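Consider the following assembly input.
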Amino acid sequence: MARETLINIALFALLPVTAGVAMVMDEPFIITLVTKAAILALAGVGLNIALGLGGLVSFGHAAFFGIGGYAMGVLASHAQSYTPLMETPILIEGTKSMLVIWGVAVVTAALAALLIGVLSLRTTGVYFIMITLAFGQMLYYFAISWPAYGGEDGLSIYIRNDFPGLNTLDPIQFFAIAFAVLAAVLFVAGRLAKAPFGLALSAARQNPERVETVGIAPFWLRLVAFIVSGAVTGLAGALFADLNRFVSPTMFSWQTSGEIMVFVILGGVGRLFGPVAGAALFILLEHVLGGLSDYWHVYLGLLLLLVVLFARGGLIGTLAGRETAHD
Amino acid sequence: MSLILLIEQVLNGIQFGVMLFLMAAGLTLIFGVMGLINLAHGSLYMVGAFAAATVAGWTGSFTLALVAALAAAAAAGALVELLVIRRLYDRDHLDQVLATFALILIFSEGTRYVFGSFPLFLDIPAALSGPVVLPGGIFYPLYRLVIIAVGLLVAAGLFVLIAKTRIGIQIRAGEADREMIAALGVDISKLYTLVFALGAALAGLAGALVGAIQSVQVGMGEPVLILAFVVIVIGGIGSIKGALVGALLVGLTDTLGGALLPTLFATFMEPSSANTIGSAVASMAIYILMAGVLLFKPSGLFGAT
């Protein structure tokens, strides 16, 4: 078995094992941290579809993360206050059902990704980076200046949403939900990369002219990848909001976009399990360094700088040696 | 809205645009010559503001504060270029984004460590404070007019530098064909450090000038940085002229949008919701402008296609 596969299995097992040990030792805070890692990894897996497979350097994925978060916040806050979301032309009520919320989060994030993608994918290179960043900021300022859902202060949801048959307020059960979603999405993303679509997308990253020559338009491949990527990150946003029982415009901020990108890079771009490694490492650093110093972002910055300058395959790339995942 | 108020807002918009130009000029120069996307440009703006506030606190002199801002930002820029940025020229944009994102974290938290989280204040010098009366009986803060003048002077100076001087010719040659000018005996790495320090100094100057109207605090650079990105995307990356036009467009759109849109919306909807929707749309106006420009010109108004 390839070294990378072994590392992937170990990494993947690390999350439930840590959560299990924390449950036995009665440390709910650790379970919450592991859940956070799983959800952020999910956001990273989403970005990795655009970034790793498609080569689309989106610096605005906070847009989708925030939309997912607000999908949860808006629906749950209406359910909480027993006021309908809309009465005319049709009656739409809020909901506390996690499954419905996920559906709404995925669909709205996908629609946003369609709109942003159609405009942004007309550009390439630095223009693409900056225009995605700007769309993220646009939603950020919108969330701040729109008072109906808390504006700058954000929205608190008092009780976690419902999942059939589970008690979502129990940390380990909520972890199980988040982990199951992550596992399912990883499975689908892994299949996607090997499917004709994923192969064509990879080819469009490496050599768009050739892809065009064989009769496939790179624009549509990239647009679909961007939509799928946005939808997955939106789902992660809904889960993240549910974890905190709080949404605020910070979810839309460019720092969030940067951090999602950091998970992908710390782990290794274009590697299926890269975001899992990156998010786990990020949470570990946040916890360990954050305990040592209030200024832990300095160390995070130095580490990130070293990874970018010297360890180009990220964590998995370094551990797995020369067997690269792509190109 | 009265005409006087409108003129005031237009002047505010121009002042904001001129500040954005100082930021955007450095960014676009660095991108045009070195092909580098530098997220840490906002940190250099912050360095300038902090240096100015510190020196003004020690000496009480605004002139010395400006000199300190220029020097500190240029020095920080040169240092960062030598240590980090220089390794990034041959990398793809993703690596550049991440490495400079890392630099932001280091700069911001480092500044917080040294200066604390509380904002510093930089006073407008006495000679420049207070309003002046413009033709038509409009009272307008003198300091803001001075900012406009300084910004336009810097813009003119930059055009002369790029168009007429030997350095400017080398910079343009570097944009066109870096191997060729290296072969002609120009020390390309020294030129790169110089351009980076020049861009940093402009950002530092902007930081110091704005620091006197707003508070000087950690994280002040990033909102301006993102607006400067919008500016150079609209103007076309690499074009100084584009940066100037884009900066004025963005400055005016943002200021006038905030002032006029709520009033405009109130003409056809009820006042309370007009205010909400108007200010929400106004906060997004520049991004809508950018999307509109890119729809028709994907490489900006003055960008090379």
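Chain A has one domain: 1-320. Ask yourself how this observation constrains the way the partners meet.
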